[in-house]
Amino acid sequence: MSKYQDSAQQLLNHIGGSENISVVTHCVTRMRFVLNDPKKADVEEIEKLGIVKGTFTQAGQFQVVIGNEVSSFYNDFIKIAGVSDTSKDDAKVAAKQNMNFLQRMISHLADIFTPLIPALVVGGLILGFRNVIGDIKLLDGRTMTIVESSQFWAGVHAFLWLIGEAIFHFLPVGITWAVARKMGASQILGIVLGITLVSPQLMNAYGVAGAEEIPFWDFGFAQIDMIGYQAQVIPAILAGLVFSFLELQLRKVIPNAISMIVVPFLSLVPAVLLAHTILGPIGWEVGSWISNIVYSGLTSAFGWLFAAVFGFVYAPLVITGLHHMTNAIDLQLMSELGGTNLWPMIALSNIAQGSAVLAMIYINRKNEEEKQVSIPAAISCYLGVTEPAMFGINLKYGFPFLAAMIGSLVAAVISVGSGVMANSIGVGGLPGILSIKPQFIGTFALAMLVAIVIPVILTIVFNKMNVGKISFKKNR
Hints:
Gyrase A, domain 2; 7% strand; 4-stranded antiparallel β-sheet; globular; two-stranded antiparallel ribbon; alpha+beta
């Protein structure tokens, strides 16, 4: 008998049997089901299973939080259920039948940016490290930077920019590739399209504002400015969407005999032309408008209020999937301002959720079964993976989730009120401090301390006062 056979059989029974499963797959910690009839799933009984840390419905998928052993459990489950192994893409396609328009749009946005996150995290850490060794005067009585004191570190500083530039200045290449991949168009042509937005032939986007003269292509009857779109998000998304649309439509009408030659040419060339004449300028303006609104809101006299609301509601946004929209805003802020004051609040919210679990470990310190769930959940949350903590502990009891939201609110106000900026998206937990601009590391460390202490204290107090002790049913 396999290790998870009994648990897998019970889950299958409570979820409505094999006939109720349209598609099933898994991610790092969760089983993802697309159910033919979601109402047949007995959520209460499923959450009683020892291996289950929690359940919720997101993006049209009924998700069961298992934890780090999800891969092994999944293999046992599909054998018992008699369903075939399915890709995540298949699951997402099937899930769309259970999604409204807003959920579909958010799902598309997530599919574009999720493959880019590892690169953005690495880039953020690299920029943070370069700032520490190149901008902070740590040596010789705080009069000299590490780079100034050593040729080795000066070489490291210069070398690391090779990676940083590739990630951030050439970000449109990754975006157009991700869009083409998402839409089912030719990925290599998506890459080529992205390169045409950041080619060395073009004036760098960062030099346009102070340029006395902008080069252009002269077609006799018309001229097109030769401007690059380094680090720009929206122009790349628009260009990728137009290219993908053209290619997919042309495939339908052009005979297969000449498709290989005609389709790439008639989809790529018009897309590049439109990108540099219409889509790029419009996207640039829209992106600047969005980033200016967010930045102005966060730095205005009412910035504290924006921070308080965002810090309080970010964790609930994760449940709905709406948090995926922040990736695009963060990247736009980075391209316009050289950093983001939104992402630090996200990292603080994650830390607050982990801290609430830390308090639950103390409260349930004599419960060995509970500690098997809560200790790994707290560790993973502090390292940026929040699902086991949120769905396995905090939402299960209710009051730790509320305590974490309050702690996140206070920490966010401190962060925004002090003007904390991050170089980039980073690891959304304690290691997130490595992505903060050097001059704000001290303040962010204070905000982190608040995001740890307040949720811990409030969780313990709420437990003693019986405040907010609820059974939070995520899919009802």
